[in-house]
Specification:
Layout: E1 2-8, H1 28-44, E2 50-53, H2 57-71, E3 82-84, H3 94-100, E4 109-114, H4 118-126, E5 141-149, E6 152-161
Parallel strand pairs: 1-4, 2-3, 2-4
Antiparallel strand pairs: 1-5, 5-6
Helix pairs in contact: 1-2
Amino acid sequence: MANLIFWRHAEAEIESSTGRDSDRALTKRGRKDALKMAKWLHRHLPIDTQVLCSPARRCQETAATLQSINADDGEHRKPLDINVAEFLSIDSRLEDIAQKLVNDDSSKTILIVGHEPNLGRLISQLLGMEKNVCAVKKGAVWWLRQKVVSGALQTYLFTVQLPRY
């Protein structure tokens, strides 16, 4: 069974010091929320999870919280490598993301750290729903599972975790 896990970056500053959207950093609240979700993910992620992250600063900072949890782990798990993926950038096209995430390995787990609206649109598409049905809140994790049933790939929602509420 394949796992596709989507993690939207946590709350970020409204404007960066450079004025570039991709340079926006996490706020204090965003760092706290990211750490809370990283702790939850750490308890549940398979050891061999592949992490793909948008090049935007706020996504990299969100993903880095997971890396810090792994570094402090008393079980001495192998640290997760965070791979920056240009196809997950702020202005990426949904079609490009979907094409890159085709999962040939039925047992692979991929964690994607990215942005709205593409995460929600991709989740909606994978679940066979209308385009804008799934809205991924800041810092939230959506975990989908895929399996082949009677020769057809089926995707279903496994869980949604929110940093607050």
